[in-house]
Amino acid sequence: MEEKAAKRTARRAGKIAAADEILEYLTGVMREGDTKDGFHAAELLGKHYSLFSDSARGEGAAVTIINDVEK
Q: What does the alpha-carbon distance between residue 66 and residue 47 come to, in Å, rounded to a whole number?
């Protein structure tokens, strides 16, 4: 419990970046950084928003085969 309270206190003191601050930083690097840094920032943002997951692409959906043809 004390560790969680210490983390909250540190965040409030500005020692730990908040999630929105990190996203803003990555967005700025993506837009203004050189090619390598901008690409990496875009990749991290894409992973954060699950743009590259199978579920976002529609892959991996279960297929049910019904064999109801009489012989």
A: 36
